[in-house]
Write a structure and sequence with these properties.
heterodimer; A: 406 residues; 3 domains; B: mainly alpha; two-stranded antiparallel ribbon
Chain lengths: 406, 183
């Protein structure tokens, strides 16, 4: 075995004119032992638990301690599924430790039969598995309010992830407990230290909401609500209450702090929009994007993610000239409702400055707005729902930076 | 004869299997109820049913005043929200100016929500530790500091729902509907 030469790698990285991130990756690489020819030595033994190649070190970007968030490294992903250990986090009082054997979900209020389900009972119901995105409604705030050239796909839009979720339709549980006709809202309440709570219209339960206990083929990660959570497909992350322990049915909304003082949208006319659940269509190019650079001209793939809380993405247009002209990107199958959709467009870079943009359209005919359009209707101080068109500037030297300015 | 008897038994067996398959759940679709879970007890519901609604439903017995709440605030809240509720470092709680970022005085539409939230989630390091009297006191103090109630007011399950918040009529239900219009 030989160690990769650190100095030589650094030299190569420098010669390629790569950015600081690349140098860091070379340093990490220097710690890994690799044979000169892997076909000439037996490989390592089998293992009970797999792990990533040591050459791959994706990380969530953490901000805050237990009240903040951690962002998915969108620029490191391919396809549409987010590895569970990279799924974004947004917690209001940390990640609770819950014993699955003691877990219970209480459903009461305007129901015929107030009922407690343990985890085993939830798992006995007919289950469904569906791919859905989740997104914090604060996603995109940095780019909307404080755009800087060194923003990355992760720091801009990393508060969204896609998983295959497995669980029991909430409608099944509603039939089981006999929800009364007068019930119009449900309170979803978590078992975390914030006892996080949101009011949800019962129509969402009858439509497509799940009590999910599975994520990407295994039980939920603690950070995503282990052992069970509410999944309200297409709706802002905070409505998808994690660690759910109680559902109360009522004839009116509960007006919790999160749906009044927090996850509401003050508008320029002085009113404030409440129960703004649906995440409108959005897209972002994840490659090329800062901090990656284009080392040479020629063919590159412009690739990114698009999604809509209202259904399927029907089109993503890509511009390389700051929105003067657009070309339809290829949508990678499967294109699923309320799920990340991967788009791709081959692009021949001629070495000149270019502004890359993507524009998503969903099945309702909604077109992702420009920053100017969104600011006009929401005002400059809007706290949530930032789905404006994102832009990347490619310079003549191949570096890529966020935004139209600079 | 013997052979015919064997065939007869086989036919009967097949008929039995077919009949049971026809009666089985997979042929008739899922039932309306699966009979899973168990009845919740009144004590279980009472232990977890902590929400307080705008009409006061869910408020417990007890009471508090701004003066009493001020002492609790200084001891348990001021570290995070500032000595007068305006300094932070965490959420600013006090202020009527519309230019401020979403205080209780300029943005919270329902007084009952203040009780509900303090009781369920505060203080950050010891959530759920406050007694009803302490929570009523803190609510009274914060409403008084926001110039919504008088310094002499007593806040309890009867008076709190009657407090009309300055931001009460500010909220409108989401009017985004998809389609071509940007709202």
């Amino acid at each position: 075995m030989s160690r990769v030469s650190l100095s030589r790698r650094r030299l190569l990285a420098g010669a390629a004119g790569a950015v600081g991130i690349a140098v860091l990756q070379r340093v990490a690489l220097a710690q890994i032992e690799v044979p000169p020819d892997p076909t000439k030595v037996p490989g390592r033994p089998l293992s009970a638990l797999g792990q990533r190649s040591p050459f791959e070190r994706p990380r969530r970007l953490v901000s805050g301690v237990n009240q903040g968030s951690s962002l998915t490294p969108l620029q490191d992903l391919c396809g549409i599924v987010t590895p569970s250990d990279l799924h974004y986090e947004r917690h209001h009082a940390g990640v609770p430790a819950i014993d699955p054997h003691r877990y219970k979900l209480l459903i009461h209020g305007l129901v015929e039969r107030p009922t407690v389900f343990d985890l085993a009972a939830l798992r006995r119901f007919p289950a469904v598995s569906r791919l859905y995105f989740l997104e914090c409604s604060g996603n995109g705030a940095a780019a909307y309010r404080d755009p800087r050239p060194d923003l990355t796909p992760q720091s801009i839009d990393g508060l969204t992830s896609t998983s295959e979720w497995t669980g029991v339709p909430l409608a099944t549980l509603f039939r089981e407990v006999g929800v009364k006709p007068g019930a119009k809202w449900l309170l979803a309440e978590g078992e975390d230290a914030a006892v996080m709570s949101r009011s949800i219209p019962v129509e969402k339960a009858w439509d497509d909401a799940l009590i999910a206990y599975g994520q990407n083929g295994e039980p939920l990660r603690p950070e995503q609500g282990y052992p069970a959570r509410l999944l309200a497909p297409g709706w802002e992350g905070s409505a998808n209450v994690k660690w759910i322990r109680r559902i109360e049915l009522a004839d009116r909304p509960f007006m919790t702090r999160e749906e009044t003082a927090k996850y509401t949208d003050p508008l320029p006319n002085g009113t404030a929009r409440m129960f703004s659940f649906v995440m409108d269509a959005k897209s972002i190019i994840t490659s090329p994007a800062y901090p990656a650079a284009l080392p040479e001209r020629g063919w590159w793939e412009v690739s990114g993610l698009a999604w809509s809380g209202r259904g399927r993405i029907t089109r993503v247009d890509v511009s390389t000239d700051a929105g003067k002209t657009w070309a339809a990107a290829e949508l990678q199958e499967p294109v699923l409702p309320k799920c990340h959709t991967r788009f791709r467009l081959p692009w021949k870079w001629d070495g000149r400055e270019a502004i890359l943009m993507s524009r998503a359209v969903d099945e309702t005919g909604y077109v992702q707005p420009t920053l100017a359009e969104l600011r006009r209707v929401r005002g400059p101080g809007a706290p949530y729902h930032f789905n404006n068109i994102r832009a990347w500037r490619v310079r003549g030297d191949g570096t890529v930076h966020w935004g139209l300015e600079g | 004869m013997r052979r015919a008897a064997v065939i007869g038994v086989a036919v009967a067996a097949v008929a039995t299997v077919y009949a049971s398959a026809k009666q089985g759940a997979p042929r008739s679709g899922p039932p309306a109820r699966f009979g899973l879970g168990r009845a919740a007890t009144a004590d279980e519901i009472k232990a977890w049913d902590i929400d307080v609604m705008p009409d006061g439903a869910g408020l417990p017995p007890g009471s508090g005043t701004p003066a009493g709440g001020a002492k609790i605030y200084a001891r348990k809240c001021a570290t995070c929200h500032g000595p007068s509720g305006t300094e932070g470092p965490f959420d600013r709680l006090v202020g009527r100016d519309q230019a401020l970022v979403r205080t209780i005085g300029n943005y919270w539409p329902y007084s009952t929500t203040v009780y509900d939230y303090i009781h369920r989630a505060m203080p950050l390091g010891a959530p759920g530790s406050l007694t009803p009297d302490e929570v009523y006191g803190l609510v009274a103090y914060l409403l008084w500091r926001n110039e919504i109630i008088a310094e002499t007011a007593v806040i309890d399950a009867r008076t709190l729902p009657r407090v009309v918040m300055p931001a009460r009529d500010r909220f409108v239900v989401d009017d985004r509907r998809g389609g071509p219009e940007i709202r």
